[in-house]
Amino acid sequence: MSDVPEPAGSAGLLISGAGSVGSALALAAAHAGVPVTLIEKRKEEGGRQDPRLFALSEPSWRWLGEIGVLNHLGVPASPIREILVEEPGHPPVRLDALDVDLPVLGYTVWASQLEDAFGRAVRSEPGIRFLPGTQIESLVAGRGGADCRLQTPQGAGRLIAPLVVIAEGRPPGWALGFGMRSVEEDTGRTALVIPLATRVRPVFAQAYEQLAGDSLLAILPAATARSVVTWTLPRAAARRFMEAPPAGRRGELARRIGCNPEAIVWDGDPASFDLLTRRVDPPCADRVLLIGNAAHSIVPFAAQGLNLALRDARHLVGAFVSSRTAGQDWGSREWTARFWTGRARDHRRVDGLTVGLPRLFALKDPLSRLIRSGGWAVVARSPGIQRRILMRGLGWNP
After folding, report:
1. What is the pLDDT of residue 36?
2. 7-17 in b/e burial notation, b at 16+ Cβ within 10 A?
3. Closest Cα partner for 346 from 315, 323, 367?
4. Concatenated DSSP letters of 283-344
5. Distance linking the first and last C-alpha atoms of the chain
6. What are the beta bridge partners of residue 106?
7. Which structural domains are found in the chain, ordered by start?
8. Which helix (H) or strand (E) holds 246?
9. 8 Å CB contact between 153 and 43
10. Out of 43-52, 200-209, 237-246, 350-359, least confident range
């Protein structure tokens, strides 16, 4: 077994998973002067077809600019200046960027194009050593760091790092042997991702959210006058939609969003994703820390998942820098636990939004309807409440 040489300088950080979250963490850490080894079990990055359109909040977008990702994004992004939220039968609520003194609330960008930009940024950053086709086989934690056995394209290898951050899509099996417990729940719901070649809601830079019982629908504007519908339905209803002929799909979607069926022009086949939620408790151990979907996967509501994970990465880099300045052992069990304790409030807030709000709108009894009706009226007339909703949605906790 051969050692994988450490980068020059002080002991660095090992990140497993070169998706959006792992790459963002690697870039931010490298910009802060922390040597990084980034490994990815896939041998080749990019080139995957992904129909999703990501909505990045203005703070997330600004941070990606600071760590150099946007310099490698070779396609235009679409701004979001307004969000229209409605429940059928109630007055709509408009949330505007001007309410929080911003030019935009965020931007939308295609998932595959964002991944390609991350890949180019990682490869051009001298502070990152990128090892594709490499994964952790086992790990032994000790006072000197995490002793990692790796599987590389050249065979078995070994690397020692003060901290290993897992930023993969799910927790690896070996990590669960460190006292972590993964709890998964099948929501019984499916998310449909429907790319359209037209903007079915022609208001420029407007995102649309419709909360209707057990159906949650969002329309995000994309560049070049396109749009993407994300529609969350009970699994049986989603299956019926996917099995219907194109004309039937067009008619059902047009009825739901209130437009002429002729305005719906497909830009590829719809994709479906069964929705599972996962939480690892605790998402950390001695020398090991989970982040992003590896630690906490949520339903795709109000564009919270990726933005929450990017906030975790940003705070983690801040913790690295503070600990290094103070001469602390970043990576110890106490250190990783303290980091996640500090992030708990933000995660509880997002859980309340992504789980609690859809459940509230699924209630059909008269009392629940009356409460929602009164709530809509209050929000529609109160700029202060609208501002509070926007700030929390953007990830600010005033």
Report:
1. 94
2. beeebbbbbbb
3. 315
4. SEETTEEE-GGGTEE----TT-HHHHHHHHHHHHHHHHHHHHHHT--TTSHHHHHHHHHHHH
5. 52
6. 57, 80
7. 2-78+108-184+278-361 (3.50.50.60), 186-274+366-393 (3.30.9.10)
8. helix 246-257
9. yes
10. 350-359
Residue with tokens 């502070």: 127
Amino acid in position 192: L
How big is the chain by its Cα radius of gyration, in Å? 22
- Tell me if residue 262 falls in helix, strand or coil: helix
The dihedral over CA atoms of 165, 169, 175, 179, expressed in degrees to the nearest 10, equals 100
DSSP per position, 150-172: EEETTEEEEEEESEEEE-SSS--
Closest CA to 283 of 21, 10, 69: 21
How far is it, in rounded angstroms, from Cα 19 to Cα 123?
Answer: 13
Between CA 193 and CA 228 the distance in angstroms is: 7
| Residue reference for tokens 């802060």 | 32
What is the spatial distance between Cα 192 and Cα 236, in angstroms, rounded to a whole number?
A: 12
| Residue 181, CA distances (Å) to 55, 173, 177, 350, 377 in order | 30, 11, 9, 21, 43
| Cis peptide bond N-terminal to 282, omega within 30 | yes
Sort residue 208 into left (φ over 0), alpha (ψ -120 to 50) or beta.
Answer: beta
3-state helix, strand, coil in the chain (%, to 5): 40, 30, 30
Tokens of 114: 């964002």
Q: Do the Cβ atoms of 372 and 83 come closer than 8 Å?
A: no
In this structure, are residues 63 and 349 in contact, taking their beta carbons and an 8 Å threshold?
Answer: no
- E strand intervals along 64-205: 78-80, 82-86, 93-96, 106-110, 128-132, 135-142, 145-152, 155-161, 163-166, 181-196
Separation of alpha carbons 282 and 289, rounded Å: 9
The per-residue pLDDT for range 254-302, each reduced to its tens digit, is: 998 888 888 899 888 899 988 888 888 899 999 999 998 888 877 665 5
What are the CA-CA distances from residue 103 to residues 82, 99, 210 (Å)? 10, 10, 24
DSSP 38: E
Long-range contacts of residues 240-248, Cβ cutoff 8 Å, at least 24 apart: 241/192, 241/270, 242/192, 242/270, 242/272
Those residues with Cβ within 8 angstroms of residue 65's Cβ, 6 or more apart along the chain or in another chain: none
Please tell me whether the overall predicted TM-score, pTM, comes out greater than 0.85 for this model: yes
Q: Closest by alpha carbon to 38, among 121, 112, 128, 108?
A: 128
